[in-house]
Amino acid sequence: MALFICTACGTQYPDTAQPPKQCAICEEERQYVPPRGQGWTTLETLAQSHMNGFREYEAGVIGIGSQPAFAIGQRALFVRTNGGNVLWDCVATLDAATIDLINGLGGIKAIAISHPHFYTTMVDWAQAFHCPIHLNAADRDWIMRKDGAIKLWEGDTLTLWDGVTLVRCGGHFPGGTVMHWAGGAGGGGIVCAGDVLTVTTDRKWLSFMRSYPNFIPLSKREVENIGRALAPYKFDTVYGHYFDRVIPSRAKDILEKSIARYVAAIEGTRGY
Question: Which of 2, 55, 163, 216 is the right S-S partner for 210, CB 3.0 to 4.6 Å?
């Protein structure tokens, strides 16, 4: 028996003697099955070819990502707050060096994940650090490996502790979530966004999609809902889902301008 991991999206499945016939995540329109077909690995096999790399962005924010890149290629964030440490989003690779480093920095009090494409090996992470995983209940059907560490939360916000809040924005998935840390950016506030808010390649704007690989946009209503969900929060920095996708300053202003630009583009009212 083995816990097989999809090589296209990084999702881990329950114990089986043989790999699943297909990956439910990849078969859905927001992801894709590669031309070569579905492939599978395990955490043990992955450890023979991949490891994690780290990047400190600011005091209290460390990026963690597989090297070489694996599956979707996202990186997680290890966020060190006064109330405890959070692993934001997740990567499939989890090795002894990662566990030792994180334990040396105080361990993980909670895991929170933006949406199902980044669930990956979240249960292994929770077991390694003896902590809960907080997922929005709207996305419960996409949890492939069930576990008692998974705590589903309902509604639009969940306060993990003082100054750290999960905010349901929807969009990419109904339960699409970002994390706001009021103490980040030297007190200016940060948003850890996954790709619910996508930092564009030029790192000057944000954009929004239902499916990134298949180029399916969101509606005006969905994008404006994202803006309303984040309106109450002060933040200066947005961390996207890749190592280089960061908007370091004026991020809330950029979000507002990005929503206006997006809506004008899909309505055909934007001047060129």
Answer: 216
